[in-house]
Amino acid sequence: MKITPSARVLSMLGEIDFDEWQCVAELVDNPFDDFLDIIRAGTEWPDGFTVSVTLPSSPKGILEVRDTGRGMSYDRLARAVRAGWSGNDMHDKLGLFGMGFNISTARLGRRTRVLTTRAGDTEWIGVEIDLDQIKDDFEAKDITEPKTDPSQHGTRIIVDRLRRTRAEWLRRNGASLRNILGSVYSWILTEHPFELYVGGTRVKPVRHCRWGDDRYVLYNGKERIPAYIPIDEKLQDGIACRDCGEWQIGSGEVCSVCGSGNLTVRERRIHGWLGVQRYLDKTEYGIDFLRNGRKILRWDKQLFTWNNPDGIAGNEEPEYPVELAHQGGRLIGEIHLDHVPVTYQKDAFEYGDRSWLTAVELLRGLAPLQPQRARKLGYPENESPLALLFKGFRRNDAGLRCLVPGDGHKPIHADTRDWGRKFQAGVSEFQTDEHWWQAVLRHEEIKKRGKEAKTAASVPAQPDEQAVLGALGLPPDIPASGAAKPETEQKTVTTAPAPAAVAVKEKTEARGERLARYESAASPHTYLSRPFGHPELGYVKVRTLLLKPGERLLDDNGLPVPVLLDQRSGNELTALVDPEHDAFRRFGADYADLLLVELGAVLKVRARSDWSPSQLVAAIRAESLQDSVLDGTTVGAEARDLLSEIRERVAEALDESGICTTAYGHLSDEEENATEEAVIAAGRVGLVGRLGRDSGFVHHMPALALVRLVQAMPESFMDGAVFRGPYAGVSSPSGKALSLARVTGCLADVATLGTFAGGATTQHLRRARLSIALLRDELAGEG
For a tag on the chain, would you pick the N or C end, based on fewer CB atoms within 10 A? Predict the structure, then answer.
């Protein structure tokens, strides 16, 4: 069988850079194409659509790909394995045999055997391509195998004499290969009854863990922005060459590239969706782009960077994520571009092709995503689907405003990522977004109750009038003024003697009934619902519940307690917390502190430990609440995150009011020099000449200068512009000063620690963390 114009060329194909998974995917593409043709033809296929990949069990093993497709004739097989053959209808295919087949097999090993048969054939026919034996006469050896069942059909590709590094990777990374292929073919495996097995284990589609179709946020309290935006844009049909694949400009009768007359009208359509992931991740966010059902780009982030359409350099900075960028992103999507050409490696589109540029313009628009940046450059507001999602979900604050689960104080990103892993593992509880949604609602409820508790604690209780009268030595029924009651109230009332008391046995509430009543009047505390323990003590799984206002938590002796543990089965505990207990409400104890005291006592008994109570609490906290660590690095990062968000809001407020020059004028000479140095250090040299003409300086000015700016221009940043506190409508100077001090006092703490976190003491860190929480509550639109 003639398969190549040159044996040396065929051998050299193995040097083209293909990862192991790409080599396997090339061999999976072809049977999937065959399956899709069967479905399009409406042919019944009772044997099912299955592709099985057998991995090498040793460095000298084999790789085999077997399918249940239609099989091939001898002529079809000869064309399929011929290097450089591209085939017909390339716009409808994931990948054809020919070049992709030869590259992948040569990359994997030195010998490849292809065997194929159709239902009714009497034998398997095939070809053996041995790179160590084939000569420049480009003849490959024809082979056959007997067939026990005439109804058998399909194709087998066996690669042996594997390259050592490839064999080792395939042997050791079956799970990783399944995960990659599950992502690459996720749409196909979900939409069609195809089965793909790797190493005897079925490949599961790696689906996106996105918010549901009906979820949304309210931008500025009024504009409804959905968390899922369907995309379906039908473009004008085009003419494509079926031989070389090139789209034609004009309506000639032959291909403008290869001269073929084999032209056809093809649909051009951009469809899929853009949305929001239920959790943040540092790498797993971005847009998947597919061609004919296979993902060409996964987690692609290039649409998050604005490139000046006028070709001016220096505008290639990523626009998302910018705020709290170290936490990662959550904007995702799945876009089908079947009409856009791809590279031969199928790991990129032809980015210079006009069809790709059209798709980019449709999805993200021509203007920057950031409204402030667009205005500076003279663009109208970007109204593209991606810009809409960016506007509504660019920030990651906990609660309904940004659709981020929290614990009543801050986002719970680690927990939501863990839930995402459970989603991918198929745990039923996490397949819908309900678990995330309830965590958002719980955050709002805990935050609301915390504010109500603060308000209640700041309002003195009403005096007991009768108790005051008694303390003054006055009869309870005489007013404090000493005046006699009206005559109508002085009449003597004769009452019948009280009947003898009848003893009634009061029903005692059983412990189980009392605990059930507590649970019915409680809401989960997400952050403190987790495993607690230590390797030396063992672990327990704790579900923490906060009692609702008005319900007092009593122990078995009827005495009020702040925390009560109820052991369930095995290592599971329920912890009930009374937020209105004096330990929390009057003395400011943290829920976690007293919970750890109770858990320490339980674990001490279980482990028969001789550790002291303080040792127990310290060890359990260090092991189980690592994310609450109080050190300069952690708290400093929290402070800088919040400062970054405030800078962005301050910059937007200055741009909207057009007073950037006035604001820059409030900087001292030293602060101006520091701002200029920071701009240069950030590589934003072009911004130096514009300092003061727009709000760009706000992102680089010293943090403490930001405090002075707010103090100097409170009317520009209070009253909901950046901070919620009233200012312009407050009549008294002292009232204005008090409202402003609530903001600038905390802002100064946060700015100081964000700049000089290294030498902070524990007390300073504790104060800074409290200021971060208080300042976040002062941000406009935060609750």
Answer: C
